[in-house]
Write a structure and sequence with these properties.
The complex is a heterotrimer of chains A (453), B (125) and C (528). Chain B is an alpha+beta fold and 125 residues long. Chain B has three helices and nine strands; from the N terminus they run βββαβββββαβα. The longest helix of chain B has 10 residues. In chain C, the strands form three sheets. Chain C has a seven-stranded mixed sheet, with helices on both faces. Chain C has a four-stranded antiparallel sheet with strand order 10-11-13-12. The chains are: A alpha/beta (453), B alpha+beta (125), C alpha/beta (528).
């Protein structure tokens, strides 16, 4: 076995050392003597194949890949919480350096300053993008981060009712509802807001712990939540703003400037490939005054014994390994390597690159929206959007998407896939265009759609 | 001279009239190590005896502080947010946590005086 | 700047206190500022085309002002992060005996296949007809996990071990709810030695956590457990092999008693790597167990994530598994997503999309590379290596319990008694010897705990050197004259001991233009 350094001779010698001790074992089987006899397998687990060489393993995975349609080989306009962007080769090279890839949580700061410093840089980048004061070292992803944000708002306000916008990603909404059901808070969801006209101000009351909105919304609308923030604060509630397309922050007024108390972003768009849904990276930012109520790991600056600047994990008394049943969250792992990918990519982009990337996305989406809106019986629902928008088709969207898939065109997400059983969204199609969109992709999409309708 | 009593959780309470001042003992601060943060209750909060009302944190540990008696919090030590180290350097003085108006002074009858507490700590080895 | 400040005199064993260099660098250790201190407007690391001119449709919400991101060229970015990487210890560099964390070798073919076009670049919401291979891949891994654990069902979506715990405990809550017992069964039992996530998870779900004491052999005290069981108990959360590195020898008695009381058995599978291929948790009476793919199946730890924590479930809990899951009908794979009509009562959804696909791919590559035969050998070699370390150090350090142990060897600090050297000092001295320290002060039930997990990935000669180094350190500590030197360690790492009190008292969690970087290198220009 190429991964196992011990030889049979090594194993015999090691057993001899162990056996020489009083009560020591003389065979490997004896080392497992605490396992109840009836649960000890005599042989290897039945019904599973034996080991394979590297070539055979690669071949097996090429076999899986061949049964999929790679977005690189087809016109591609799918978004809905995960976006296809170009990731520079430097990013992937950097995260595969063994010193990053095969290191663990930086418990020993003297020999993990590399991880600690990039997480400190990451935290700073997140505060800058969101316009907030403090950020943690990442969450599993945006969807789980949103649920953690509601739990945090409940702790801060000592209330237990969350209002969820109808513009929130339906899966994010369900995760919050699931958490609420089992962890004991109320989640009140608005109707799907395809038109972007929802007004939640009247629903905020003295029992509300938080209002959760998304910008741009799941349907693509861009909204100003400043007045909603004021209404929340007047009622003693927090405003949580979710951003699933982090590139939008290169062009849009950040949630921090709208008065948000907690901002949660899905950071996948920067540095992380689509990867069929994960792993991604959740960004989580808030106000200084709520710092100690935050979930997740935090890196702080300090000095070492020689007075040199260094970084450490800090405020860890919030965490499960110390607070146990009183922890702010049960989270242990973050998304360290995905956070590194985010930080490397954003560092490559810099101020000018990040802004231009956002402009490019908006421009491509505008071009696509205009061309689709020009088709007969296709109605664009958005007056505003960033790189994603909703169109109403004259017939159900799901079969249309399937029909286009048979032509190897990945046209978008039928809203009914995420909101099954809701007749009002049956004809709605959500499309995204990023900097990766080309005329060679848009032309065939528009033509095929015209044909299928 | 004010009357100081101790709980088995290593808190002290100094009683002056119907107001008690609460903090943690010398022994407690030694056990905790460098105090980095104290979460003190807001003035006006009504608390019941035994209720968790404050948290004191070191780098590696967090301990709850329980109200030694029922009553209303009248003042919290705001200075601790800037200088939590006062709990280490002067636990019985500048390191106080909060003051409360006592609802029922009889609740303090079971607490230890200085001599009893010293013996209690000695018994912990 | 005087670069010897703060060093203790009389402990010089090498060149650490040698005169400062002009740059502050020390050969391969290069001092590195933050990206925010090195950026320049007008520099970029990407070349993007001029955007086409379009009418702005941003609802009047165009971002004004500077974001504040620094501009760096590609070579600067590469140098910056390469220099940072060189300040990290890693599995790729040597023995990383961090107990409970399973720092085993991370094969690179796993990285390669996770990045294949048609796997790494798929969108999670592509029409299912265009991702048949991806769904098959997830189901193949699910099949391995079910077969290796002897359990009938698995929920793949949890993002990490703690998330898997949440999923499993929610499934238990859902089963209780279905039986009308959620209001009466409010207690969760957990041993004192449990991972902190166990009580945190149970408390989050509204359960009251009741600790179960250990016996003098480091196992659950069966009599105490039986006494604690009653109609108020929802579940026991038990790690097996446990956090002391021992197999719970009375586990079948435990699960029988738990089930007889109408409660469920949650097994924390963090240590499944010790028994994979040799013992199936399903044969032990487990109702659910999360599997940390980054431990047992070697997906990279990546500086603290990402992980993945699929949960295997018994027949009793399978109906409550959350959305989504993969279904095969005929030759076609589909996904049961929210709203799909299914048998059972799904507890809801825990994560967007389908789970940590990138981790599934890597774990499956690892599993296929080993096969049923290799995985069994993995468990055997991991257990053999841990017992070898324990036997070799038995007379120098003090094992907390009698062996044999499973995949990790637990020592207490009694061999350091009266030496003036603490567990922490001992660990920091290991850094200077070129090793990552073991897990310290966990589990909490052992005084000054040192938990050593060598894994199956170390050659015997490397283990021998590691053992010799620990013996040498232990003997130095016991000599009674080295306490000061231990307290000063480490000397040779990129940074010496860091002031955690300062970090926690005055938290600085981000760079700001006004930050006056403490101890910043005078050669580096502070940013404005």
């Amino acid at each position: 076995m190429r991964y196992l350094p011990l030889t049979d001779a090594d194993r015999r010698e090691m057993l001899a050392t162990i056996g020489a001790q009083s009560g020591g074992a003389k065979s490997v089987d004896e080392l497992f003597r605490d396992v109840p006899q009836k649960a000890r397998l005599g042989a290897k687990v039945a019904g599973l194949p034996d080991h394979l060489g590297e070539l055979e393993v690669e071949r097996a995975f090429q076999g899986f890949a061949a049964k999929n349609v790679s977005p690189a080989t087809a016109p591609f306009f799918i978004g809905a919480g995960a976006y296809r962007h170009h990731v520079p080769a430097t990013v992937d090279y950097m995260i595969q350096r063994g010193e990053f890839l095969t290191s663990y949580t930086p418990y020993q700061p003297e020999i993990t300053q590399g991880t600690l410093q990039y997480l400190f840089e990451f935290q700073t980048q997140v505060t800058l993008l969101t316009g907030m004061e403090v950020a943690n070292a990442s969450m599993y992803d945006g969807s789980t981060g949103a649920s953690e944000a509601v739990l945090m708002a409940n702790r801060v306000t000592r209330r237990s009712k969350a209002l969820l916008s109808g513009g929130l990603h339906p899966q994010y909404r369900r995760i919050i509802e699931t958490t609420g059901h089992w962890q004991g808070f109320k989640a009140v969801s608005g109707k799907p807001d395809a038109e972007g006209l929802e007004d939640l101000i009247a629903t905020v009351d003295k029992e509300t712990s938080c209002v959760v909105v998304q910008n741009p919304s799941f349907f693509g609308h861009v909204r100003d939540f400043s007045t909603l923030a004021e209404a929340c604060h007047a009622a003693g509630a927090l405003l949580i703003v979710v951003v699933t397309e982090v590139v939008s922050l290169g062009l849009l007024k950040p949630p921090g400037e709208m008065g948000a108390d907690i901002v949660v972003c899905e950071g996948q768009s920067i540095g992380n490939g689509l990867g069929f849904g994960g792993p991604y990276v959740g960004l989580f930012a808030t106000r200084d005054k709520y710092m100690r109520q935050m979930p997740g790991r935090l890196v702080g600056e300090t000095v070492d014994a020689d007075g040199k600047r260094g970084f450490v994990l800090t405020l860890s008394t919030r965490e499960q390994h110390i607070r146990r049943e009183k922890a702010t969250s049960n989270i242990c792992t973050n998304a360290g390597l995905c956070a590194l990918a985010f930080t490397v990519h954003l560092t490559l982009l810099g101020e000018a690159g990040f802004r231009r990337l956002a402009e490019l996305n908006h421009a491509k989406a505008s071009q696509l929206a205009d061309r689709l809106a020009a088709l007969p019986d296709v109605k664009l629902l958005n007056e505003s959007f960033f790189n994603e928008f909703t169109v109403a088709l004259p017939k159900p969207a799901a079969p249309v998407v399937e029909a286009l898939a048979t032509k190897r065109i990945l046209a978008g997400v039928p809203v009914s896939r995420l909101l099954p059983g809701d007749n009002s969204v049956e004809n709605l199609l959500l499309l995204a265009a990023t900097e990766t969109a080309t005329e060679e992709g848009m032309g065939p999409l528009v033509a095929a759609l015209k044909e299928v309708l | 001279m004010a009357d100081v009593k101790y709980t088995e959780e290593h808190e002290w309470i100094r009683i002056e009239g119907d107001v008690g001042t609460i903090g943690i003992s010398q022994y407690a601060q030694e056990q905790l190590g460098d105090v980095v943060f104290v979460d003190v209750p807001q003035a006006g909060r009504t608390v019941a005896k035994g209720e968790s009302v404050a948290v004191v944190e070191s780098v590696k540990a967090a301990s709850d502080i329980y109200a030694p008696a029922s009553g209303e919090v009248v003042e919290a030590n705001a200075a601790l947010s800037e200088t939590p180290g006062d709990v280490n350097t002067d636990p019985m003085g500048k390191g106080w946590f909060f003051k409360m108006k006592l609802a029922n002074k009889a609740e303090l009858d079971g607490l230890m005086d200085q001599a009893a507490y010293d013996a209690f700590v000695k018994g912990l080895g | 700047m005087d670069r010897s400040q703060g060093r203790t005199g009389g402990i010089v064993t090498g060149g650490a206190s040698a005169s400062a260099t002009f740059t502050g660098n020390r050969a391969l250790q290069i001092e590195e500022p933050l990206i925010f201190e090195m950026g320049q407007a007008g520099r970029t690391g990407v070349d993007l085309p001029e955007p086409p001119k379009v009418e702005d449709r941003l609802n009047g919400l165009r971002r004004g002002g500077e974001i504040g991101l620094p501009g760096l060229s590609e070579p600067q970015v590469v140098q910056h992060f390469t220099r940072l990487s060189q300040k990290n210890y890693a599995i790729d560099m040597g023995v990383y005996p961090l107990g409970s964390c399973t720092m085993k070798h991370n094969p690179r073919v796993n990285e390669k296949v996770a990045r294949l076009a048609g796997i790494g670049d798929l969108h999670p919401l592509q029409p299912v007809s265009t991702v048949q291979g991806a769904l098959e891949l997830i189901d193949r891994l699910a099949h391995w996990l079910k077969t290796l654990t002897g359990m009938p069902a698995v929920a793949m979506s949890p993002a990490a071990g703690a998330h898997g715990e949440m999923c499993g405990m929610m499934a238990i809550a859902a089963a209780l709810e279905a039986k009308g017992e959620r209001a009466t069964r409010r207690t969760v039992l957990a041993p004192e030695s449990a991972h902190g996530t166990n009580p945190a998870t149970a408390a989050a779900l509204g359960f009251t956590v009741k600790p179960i004491p250990a016996n003098d052999k480091g196992r659950v005290d069966l009599d105490a457990l039986k006494a604690a069981l009653g109609p108020d108990v929802a579940a026991i959360m038990l790690t097996n092999p446990n956090t002391c590195g021992l197999f719970e020898s009375e586990i079948i008695e435990i699960s029988t008693a738990v089930h007889a009381a109408g409660a469920y058995f949650y097994c924390d599978g963090a240590n499944f790597n010790a028994i994979v291929g040799r013992v199936r948790p399903g044969d032990l009476g487990v109702d659910c167990m999360h599997i940390n793919l980054h431990k047992t199946f070697s997906t990279p730890h990546g500086g603290g994530g990402p992980g993945a924590g699929p949960v295997v479930l018994s027949q009793a809990l399978a109906p409550y598994a959350p959305y989504p899951w993969i279904v095969k009908s005929g030759d076609v794979w589909t996904v049961a997503e929210d709203g799909a009509t299914v048998d059972g009562q799904p507890l809801g959804r825990l994560k967007a999309f389908h789970g940590q696909m990138g981790m599934f791919t890597r774990a499956l590559a690892y599993i296929m590379s080993h096969g049923a035969d290799g995985l069994k050998q993995v468990a055997e070699d991991a257990v053999l290596s841990a017992n070898y370390v324990m036997a070799a150090l038995k007379d120098t350090m003090t094992p907390a319990f009698d062996g044999p142990c499973m995949h990790e060897a637990l020592f207490d600090d009694s061999f350091l008694k009266d030496t003036g050297v603490s567990t922490l000092d001992f660990a920091k001295a290991m850094i200077d010897e070129g090793y990552h320290p073991m897990t310290m002060y966990f589990p909490l039930v052992v005084h000054g705990a040192m938990l050593i997990e060598p894994t199956e990935s170390q050659a015997k000669e490397d283990l021998d050197q590691f053992i010799a180094a620990l013996k040498s350190l232990a003997e130095r500590a016991k000599s009674g004259t080295a306490a000061e030197a231990f307290k000063a360690a480490p000397l040779y790492s990129p940074r010496r001991r860091l002031d955690e009190t300062l970090a926690a008292r005055k938290p600085v969690l981000r760079w700001r233009p006004s930050n006056n970087p403490p101890g910043s290198d005078p050669m580096k220009q502070a940013a404005e």
